[in-house]
Amino acid sequence: MATAVQSVERENYLNSNYGIKSWLLTSDHKRIAMLYLISITAMFWIGGFFAMLIRLELLTPAGDLVSSDTYNKLFTMHGIIMVFFFLIPSVPAVIGNFVIPLMIGAKDLAFPRINLLSWYIYMAGAITAIVAMVTGGVDTGWTFYTPFSTTYSNTHVIGAAIGIFIAGFSSIFTGLNFIVTIHRMRAPGMTWRRLPLFCWSNYAAALIMVLGTPVVAITLLLVALERAFNIGVFNPQLGGDPLLFQHLFWFYSHPAVYIMILPGMGVISEIIACFSRKRVFGYEFVALASIAIAVLGFLVWAHHMFVAGISVYAALVFSLLSYLVAIPSAVKVFNWTATLYKGSIRYETPMLYAFGFIGLFTVGGLTGVFLASLGIDVHVTDTYFVVAHFHYVMVGGMVMAYMAGLHFWWPKISGRMYPEAWAKLSALLVFVGFNTTFFPQFILGYMGSPRRYHAYPPEFQVLNVLSTAGASILAVGYVLPMIYFLWSLRYGELAPPNPWNAVGLEWMTPSPPPTHNFDETPIVTWEAYDYEHQPQEEVSVGH
Amino acid sequence: MWKNLPLFPERASALAWQVDGLYFLLVAVSAFFTLLIFVLIFVFAVKYRRSVHPHPVQIEGSLPLELAWTLIPLGICMIFFAWGSLIYFQEARPPQGAMEVYVVAKQWMWKFEHETGQREINQLHVPLGRDVKMIMSSQDAIHSFYVPAFRIKADVLPGRYTSTWFHPTKVGTYHLFCAEYCGTDHSGMIGQVIVMEPYAYQAWLSGGGATGSLAENGQQLFQQLGCSTCHRFDTQGRGPNLTNIFGKPVLLDDGRTVVADENYIRESILNPGAKIVSGFKPIMPTFQGQVSEENLMALVAYIKSLSQPASGPASNQAAASVSSNGQ
Ligand code: HEM
Ligand SMILES: [Cu+2]
Ligand SMILES: [Cu+2]
After folding, report:
1. Which ligand ends up closest to the CA of A394?
2. pTM for this prediction
């Protein structure tokens, strides 16, 4: 394949300019996406390092590897980094940034400079948080529950809170940019009903970013103020109310979990369609389900508080609404599965990741249904069951989707192919390692093993050992792509404009795309996933 | 090694069976759907692989299917919702006549005080077959009272009472965990609930350790703190007569009526200005910072004991509102 594309190096976004300044002052959405890619990858490895230490500590029941204070800081910093500095920006700020303008036939996002600013803000937030961590750490858990965080913790709560506060604005700017771009910058003929589902789901996530993030920003600011000046908002001894914090925090953080899945769902829709060469089954329903999730997601926050002392009737209402929000997710899973029916399926790496996503997200979503059930939640809340649930949706779901997307668009991003065999191996390792790590935690949770425990009763050891073993497999699964992606930058086969023979405007421009994306603005006359009219490649693709 | 791999927690309360029943149903339904999706993906992926099925058949979608996979899961979810809520209602409403245990949680220990005056730390002895209600408050951060064998959990908050209850059905020693992260030694904030045969429990009770019942201690405090100068057992006091107020509605001077439950009494002592009893002047001083959490509980227990029967319908009603004290 590679030899066919003889490389008279065409000008593209990577080689149009050289030098560090041309990157740091760029307003090209593709370069900004790369800045994000590098920074969140660094954060992922820092967060992952903390996770490995946590798993090592839990190898034995006694708290012997690190002290309990250190352990508490480890899981706190793991959570803060992974949620706020890796997962929230992952698919939107890297993949979304890169492909949304390409997908809708635009030259850039609506506000290129704000896009660059959002990266600087992200970096400022990340550095603030890291400084807080290096100079002593935080030990409140990523949830910052009051009055522990405001009064009793002796760690750098204010620094971490300010870091997240700052990073929040980068999320708001990205969201704003996506919303305006998708409304205003679509190429002629790209109607809402022709919009790729990846854009739909990022649009839905952007709504949450813009509407929800200010709430968590203010909430964390209040925590910092209460800590510094005892203003008495959350501490009952000062006339405050500790539950107020939980309402405010989850009012953002529940919707935020959908920021952490919707863009991933979009990736999966693109990939399933491409590798089964079919229109996504029930396109309208999949698109609407994204919006339904974004709207309903704002109405279920108190399901994190069923044992916190809310009234019985509030609990009933929030339980009922939580079931409602599970339905659109189920609808998506069924539609993806139905898309495979009578398709023409190819097992490329992105597709393997997508299969993995559907399976793991199904388990994660169904266990969400367990938790929405009041009687069950009382028993398993704040145990490893919840830990397993959210890792199934966030790691099994979103990180799988992120990896799927990176593989899928890597040829477009880098202009190179990655080594297929290694990539398949890594997909397999991730799937096996992930399940070995987190499935035992469901059992642990139902057994009653509380989360955030540095030491635990001996009867929980076997399952914990299994989990740690799984985590090491998972780690290998993540290290591999890191290596072969870097390798491919130099040694990978050159990628043709459309290596997967996919439809979608991003595949109609060279790989890597020129700075201005398209030589002339495309005019769209077909629906999304129009595989019917896409010429079929030869049948036997030997890899 | 398999001895070390229990897959299921012990069942030691009346409620445990119900929770497990619902759990089994959820596991069965989830296993069904997970398998369904796995099998479908597998079959489609093999049957329609590119080499044997090169020409895909384009399908727009199907409204009946969309309706089916919206409405059927919704219907199933409503069963889970109803069953889960029924269990939750029981958990929120302690039965009449439950034995009461007062709990103070602090970093990082559990302090228990029985009505009869026994105090324990990180250990709770209870008799088999009685309903036991916990009335709990925290001295610092939020903690959570969790006994997996009973399938119950309730957060313990500073500044107010929350409650939970259980009905032990099996003699034994069970884990007590703090389930809400509370700082350095959170994972050391553990203890045991020891369920004993009633006769053994009686023997344990008479084994000493009690320094007067909780209500008696409260009575003494009531004198020492000078409450009795204003609150007299006639109508001449500057404050209301506290006999028989517990569990009854109280008319406030702004026209509202509230039920005098544990949280109301607590608030009346710590923040008397918040709710003024109709016909009285707001002269009661605040005792915030002057009474410890334990003494506060003794005062509450004493004022409750002034209303007879001590744990009749009154405490039942109050219990409901204790657990529903959110905003
Ligand atoms: C499919 C529908 C879902 C339902 C019904 C659901 C339900 C729930 C419930 C009731 C809880 C509270 C558990 C507890 O603390 O007792 C919870 C926790 C959580 N869920 Fe979900 N969930 C769903 C999907 C998701 C998704 C898609 C994500 C993220 C991508 C997610 C992430 C989380 C996280 C992070 C927590 C725990 C937060 C913490 O306490 O640290 N959930 N979920
Ligand atoms: Cu939630
Ligand atoms: Cu604790």
Report:
1. 1
2. 0.90
